[in-house]
Every structure is written in structure tokens, then in C-alpha cells.
Amino acid sequence: MTRRCGGRLPQLVAFDLDGTLVDSVPDLATATDRMLQALGREPAGEAQVRGWVGNGAAMLVRRALAGSAEPERVATVTEPLLESALNRFREYYAAENGLRSTLYPGVTEVLALLREREVPLVVITNKPKPFADPLLEKLDIARYFQQVLGGECLPRRKPDPLPLQEVAGPLGLIPARCLMVGDSRNDVEAARAAGWVSAALTYGYNHGEPVANCGPDWLLEDFRELIL
To answer: pLDDT digit string (tens) for 126-181?
Structure first.
């Protein structure tokens, strides 16, 4: 980690949530399928939902209604239908959130070590904060983070750099000594635009595209590689 941040520990490490710290697809898929069935549609199944996650709840629901992540098909979903479906999804996901989600191997170990080294840690996710906070609590890792920014907390979300700038700017941190750890193009592009170092995990959710194609500064296959 020090090799990536000018030979010193980062001044700040920000983590994405879904697909980075937590495999939350089992709960998201259950809520999505319940929503689709309530609308008289066929369930999508976990494998399909796994390819739709990563851009917030509204986009997940849009993709589920379209039955595809293709932008042309997603654009055909009407706003009244989206609003109705999104309300149902939120209700179902609030009940499912954290029931089947699991931490990826090494997450607790790495977070504990970074806190021991007094590295400030935050979560920057496109997931709504009312879902992110309970999930972190249920998985017993909320205590490691000084701040959690959800997708609705600011006017713009990742891949826009605003959330990263919001957590680092007021502290006067040097962008090149801040690290964004994620699993998708959103994370890599947000870090690049903010001048941060990006670390991308290959096991997460990136809509079927290898995250290596996004050009991260650091490519990881295992979360524990962060502290090697």
C-alpha cells in the first residue's frame, strides 16, 4: 500500500461497499425478485441481478424492469413505472438487507489493521445511506469507518469525483495520497478524476466487464493484498 501512495501510508482510504467489502447480491436479488413478482413479472434470479448491481437502487430497478443492462432498453422504462417499482423494492430490500450478505475474505482483518495504523477509513457508495448503514452494522464493520457517504447524500455520485472531494477537501488532504478501493469503472473513474490512487478488486460487480479494462492504478484479486 505504501508503494502506491508516495512511499507512505495513505492519508485516507475510501471503500466502495457492494462488490468490494460485501457480497450483497443474495439480498438484492431476493428483493428484486419480490418486486418483479409483485408487478406480475417473472423473477430475474441471482445470476442476472449480479450483472445489474453497482449504480444505485434506482438503476438496479430500471435494469430489472427492462430485463437488461443495455442503455437502449433501460431508457424505455417509464418514470411512473419506475417510481412504483422502486417503492416496492425499497420496502422489500429493507426487510432483506443483511440477511444473506457476507463479507469478502480478509475484510475485517484488513480494516482492523488499517485502523491500528491510524489510517482514516470511509465508505463511499452509490447505495442509499439508509441501506448502507444497517448493512455495515449487521456485518459488524461500521465501527471502522469515520464516515459513510451514500448515493443520495450529494448532488452527484460516482463516477463523478464529488463524493471523494467532499471527504478529502475539508481535511486539506493531498489527493495523490488518498486511495479509493472499489470493484467497478465507477470507482476507478471517480478516483482518476479526483487525482486519487485507485485500487480495483477483480471479484466484484462491473457489469460483465473485466475491471482491469478500466485502467486502475492497482489491480487486486484478494482484499488482503491491500496490506501486503
So the answer is: 998 999 999 999 999 999 999 999 999 999 999 999 999 999 999 999 999 999 99
Residues sharing a CB contact under 8 Å with residue 224, sequence separation 6 or more, in sequence order: 105, 106, 109, 110
Query: What is the band of 7 on the pLDDT scale with cuts at 50, 70, 90?
Result: confident
C-alpha cell, 228: 501486503
Output the CA–CA distances (angstroms, integers) from residue 62 to 2, 49, 124, 221, in the order listed.
40, 12, 22, 30
Cβ neighbours around 163 below 10 Å, total: 25
C-alpha cell read off for 76: 424505455
What is the set of active-site residues? 16
pLDDT digits (tens, 9 = 90+) for 50-70: 989 877 789 999 999 999 999
Is residue 200 domain-shared with residue 217, that is, in the same domain?
yes
Cβ proximity of 176 and 6 under 8 Å: yes
Domain that holds residue 67: 25-96
The total number of structural domains that make up the chain: 2
Whether residues 88 and 112 share a domain: the answer is: no
- Sheet of strand 178-182: strand arrangement: 147-149, 121-124, 12-15, 178-182, 197-201, 218-220
Model pTM? 0.92
